[in-house]
Design a protein that fits this description.
seven-stranded mixed sheet; 13 helices; globular; alpha/beta; binds flavin-adenine dinucleotide; six-stranded mixed sheet; 37% helix; 402 residues
């Protein structure tokens, strides 16, 4: 690959923008094509484990992100039926001492804007909005992408950062749609002053119930409150309007604790989203095209790590490209080798945790007992593989040229 040819990045989400910034830090130009009319994000909250800062440090935005973020006092799991605490991960000073960085919650738009501002300041990055990519064609010396509205762009190669419904993946692998897991979710942000439910407002709380869960936490320095309700789909909402959705929620959450019911009453029911992931695969590249983030390894949100993985991917891919001396095959292979097991572990552990949250009957009692027996040290040990961050293997271990 020629360092002067821009790298085409399809998708200006968290993965795509991180990739552009990480490439620019290594002196590589890129052009980010985003299908939405404007670069931006859907406006809900997002959580990040401390591992994200290893990547954010590399692209120079940790300080700006921390200014916008909040640090919860703890991450709690609560029994959705009786309101009792099942387990608590303290995320205060002890956590920070152990993992070197904080656990944060942030408005997705704020994070997106930090990345966008950094991209706009960098002359090596060109952002092109309102550009829905339809397909790509590879030649011996480059790649051409064609858009829905008939434009075309040429580059050295292509990074597919176009999310869980990636067209890049569909063209490259033709391996079908993501796997729905039968659950649906509603997300809402309300002003903190309007929260009437009797909830802890300075924590991330997850209420786990048989076939349903709910997550809530504060945003923007305690001025907003983010609520996510997720449940196994039933036949109640087949009509597909707000009244039917309300009836479905009332049925599914009928045995939930009164606090949860008060939170449910605050949900905006206009739009709901199906939940799904994909089985892990080993190869995310073919020729001059490589996938990352949700396009490569979408995961359930139970570990709150999908965006973290997309951001880590972006930094890792940029390093592999910068070190490959023009050999894109070698760069993409090295990237996969570095990332497949870590991202697959996120996908598979997220499925396991999903089961724990939603368990019923005796399985639920077993999981609750196991979680209740864990000490803080046990919890930190279980999370170390993830929260200690991702380090590129050294050059010798990767067989890279000296
Ligand atoms: C309810 C919920 C809660 C979550 N909570 C967390 C959390 O707390 N922490 C966490 O780390 N992760 C979380 N995630 C996961 C996280 O949202 C995703 O893993 C992350 O957004 C993936 O980033 P990405 O850049 O790969 O893809 P995306 O964010 O999906 O970005 C893809 C971009 O590509 C664009 N695009 C798509 N197709 C085209 C095309 N053909 N041409 C041009 N552009 C295109 C899209 O418009 C979009 O901007 C959550 C997910 C859900 C559903």
């Amino acid at each position: 690959m020629d360092r002067n040819d821009p790298i085409i990045i399809v998708g200006g989400g968290l993965g795509g923008l991180t990739t552009a910034l990480a490439l620019a830090r290594r002196g590589w130009p890129s052009r980010v094509l985003e299908g939405a009319p404007e670069f931006g994000a859907i406006g809900f909250g997002i959580q990040f484990g401390p591992n994200v800062f290893h990547a954010l440090d590399r692209i120079g935005v940790s300080g700006a992100v921390l200014e916008k973020a909040d640090t919860p006092a703890a991450v709690l799991m609560i029994d959705a039926l009786n309101g009792q605490e099942v387990t608590r991960v303290a995320t205060g000073s002890g956590f920070r001492d152990r993992f070197k960085y904080p656990y944060i919650i942030i408005h997705r738009i704020d994070l997106h804007n930090v990345l966008l501002d950094a991209c706009r300041r960098d002359p090596l990055i060109t952002l092109v909005g309102d550009t829905m990519v339809r397909r790509f064609d590879e030649t011996s010396d480059g790649i051409t992408v064609n858009t829905e509205d008939g434009r075309s762009f040429r580059g050295a190669f292509l990074v597919g950062a176009d999310g869980i419904r990636s067209r890049t993946r569909a063209q490259m692998l033709a391996d079908g749609d993501p796997l729905p897991n039968g659950f649906m979710g509603f997300r809402t942000i309300v002003p903190m002053g309007e929260v009437t439910a009797d909830v802890q407002r300075d924590v991330v709380a997850l209420w786990g119930g048989p076939g349903f869960h709910m997550v809530h936490y504060p945003l923007r320095h305690g001025t907003l409150f983010n609520i996510v309700a997720v449940f196994r789909r039933s036949a109640h909402s087949e009509r597909g309007d707000v009244a039917a959705y309300r009836a479905e929620l009332e049925h599914i959450y009928r045995n939930a604790h009164p606090t949860m019911k008060a939170l449910l009453a605050m949900l905006d029911l206009d739009r709901r989203q199906a939940v799904g992931d994909r089985d892990p695969i080993r190869h995310w590249h073919k020729g001059r095209v490589v996938l990352l983030g949700d396009a490569a390894h979408p995961t359930l949100q139970s570990l709150a790590q999908g965006a973290c993985m997309a951001i880590e991917d972006g930094c890792c891919l940029a390093d592999c490209i910068a070190e490959a001396n023009g050999d894109h095959e070698a760069a993409f292979r090295r990237f996969e080798n570095a990332r497949v097991v870590r991202t697959a572990r996120v996908t598979l552990e997220s499925r396991y945790i999903w089961e724990v949250y939603h368990a019923d009957g005796i399985a639920r009692e077993v999981y609750w007992q196991m979680l209740g027996e864990r000490s803080e040290a046990d919890t930190y040990r279980c999370l170390a593989w993830l929260y200690d961050g991702f380090r590129l293997p050294d050059k010798a271990a990767r067989g890279a040229p000296p």
